[in-house]
């Protein structure tokens, strides 16, 4: 087919050839238990090796893997490498400013630092099973703290450093976390991010209280410390001993809040053994990781991509992972490429939104750099348009680097659908083939299975080790959100096409989740933020196609009686959403309207709102069931995205 890009010939070291993929995939779906128990023994060190594979049911939902095995993921990511890789670099830190000093840690140093952090946490009173909230910039201390929590059996809940104090407070309360770890400040594109001040603001809110805050000195900026509550990391004695807690494979490892169709973000819970195996296996195969490779995933550790592919995946594989605090366009649009040249990055993993933004600046920022160290390129987070894919492949990768377009979710723990570098030809815009053990299923809206080349709603049938186990504290919500739409199946929320070669093409969310610059957001969250404003009566939020961000945020707002829409109120509401959620949720368009298009039973017809937001109002379909059909003309008249 003309739109297929041939894979490079497999080098002798390749982790997976086409024949191996076919054989391993076949085995993984015919005998999942045998396959994954074997992988579990090969890729992880266990105190007690598991003899049980999957014990799972989707109705009622109960998912376990390796339930008679015990291990510690920090031991697997750090301690076990000391004899063989003690002097190898584990983490490289590249600061925001190219002129600031960077840092790198060998596995031996990593072990020492993780131990120190673990002991500091213990000294603050953190015990096995406690939830610890991290609110960190992209510095090595973020990864260290995740590992330190895992070492002592505490459950980490990382909150993206770009979220507001309000959002942080909500997440601290939701998992009843009694400890927060932060840095004094972060740096992004030369701007400071007031992390500790945000923590203070969050902890001043009603109903939020914690026992201790651990603070890393990163910028040395002015901050306030509360006596008895806040502790500088540097003030804890450095003690090099801290044993790893022996954890059951099903003991919780972390909670990560993510957006869904309804309500507040869900605390997706991952457990230890299955997640560790998923991170290890996907990292090894998807990036064709070879010993000595320098791997750089540009995602923030506040997202699942940062969990699995900045911290756990690379380190469990004894790899070298680069942590970059800055942004792609500071000091100029060549920064990513400078970082790649400086550290001789071999495997690079980023988001389509970054690729599109850099592509817009022209090729010269790329062609003026060397980039010959690159071997495999990856993307994640949203569908990549073929034009951006081509640019990444041709200009960045010089047609020498296979691209892996990895489809997965917070709930899946790691990669689910992707081509493998030397096993599959690529099709720009298609994620490709299912990973080992993954059995995708496309269904129509009534849940009927669709066969062959077709398009439908993407479900996964058999459980896989990296699958989320529950929503923290609300198992019903877990069942409702993922297993009730199509009973007996895990429903991803994504639409998908399967072509005649069995390649999967993700078409985007089919629920009320939008994807803004690779950040997943519930339209309901933005609506809740808007209606908290005293002048707002009702709000409906939809996504619309955006050249750089993938999707933009379009808000329809009705005001309370007596209020008038104005430029001032427009800015005030945008500001208000930033304050409630964070800058990533800033509305792109906001339209004041005297009503929302509802059916006579009161249901908002979002289809109409989406069309108008897309500036595609010629084909609104049937509007006769609206309570007030004349509203549509007024909505079109007032549309903001012209
Ligand atoms: C979308 C990020 C197309 C998808 C790892 C999914 C993608 C949601 C891709 C999960 C991709 C992620 N192609 N769409 N390669 N990767 N998505 O939980 O809609 O932040 O459901 O996990 O991002 O977002 P999340």
Automatic annotation (TrEMBL):
Under CDD domains, the record lists:
ACS
Q: What are its cofactors?
A: Mg(2+)
Keyword entries, A-Z: Acetylation, ATP-binding, Ligase, Magnesium, Metal-binding, Nucleotide-binding
Annotated AMP-binding enzyme C-terminal domain residues = 525-603
EC number, UniProt record: 6.2.1.1
Q: Does the keyword Nucleotide-binding apply?
A: yes
One GO cellular component term, please give it.
Answer: cytosol
- GO molecular function per UniProt: acetate-CoA ligase activity; AMP binding; ATP binding; metal ion binding
Reaction(s) catalysed by this chain's protein? acetate + ATP + CoA = acetyl-CoA + AMP + diphosphate
Which residues are noted in the entry as CoA-binding?
188-191, 305, 329, 517, 578
Q: Name one Pfam family in it.
A: AMP-binding
Q: Which GO terms describe its biological process?
A: acetyl-CoA biosynthetic process from acetate
Question: For binding ATP, which residues are annotated in this chain's numbering?
Answer: 381-383, 405-410, 494, 509, 520
Q: Which InterPro entries match?
A: Ac_CoA_lig, ACAS_N, AMP-bd_C, AMP-bd_C_sf, AMP-binding_CS, AMP-dep_synth/lig_dom, ANL_N_sf
Where does this protein hold Mg(2+)? 531, 533, 536
Modified residue annotations for N6-acetyllysine: 603
Query: Where's the AMP-dependent synthetase/ligase domain?
Result: 79-462
Keyword Ribosomal protein recorded: no
Q: Which family does it belong to?
A: Belongs to the ATP-dependent AMP-binding enzyme family.
Functional note: Catalyzes the conversion of acetate into acetyl-CoA (AcCoA), an essential intermediate at the junction of anabolic and catabolic pathways. AcsA undergoes a two-step reaction. In the first half reaction, AcsA combines acetate with ATP to form acetyl-adenylate (AcAMP) intermediate. In the second half reaction, it can then transfer the acetyl group from AcAMP to the sulfhydryl group of CoA, forming the product AcCoA.
NCBIfam families linked to this entry = Ac_CoA_lig_AcsA, PRK00174.1
Q: What is this protein called?
A: Acetyl-coenzyme A synthetase
Q: Which gene encodes it?
A: acsA
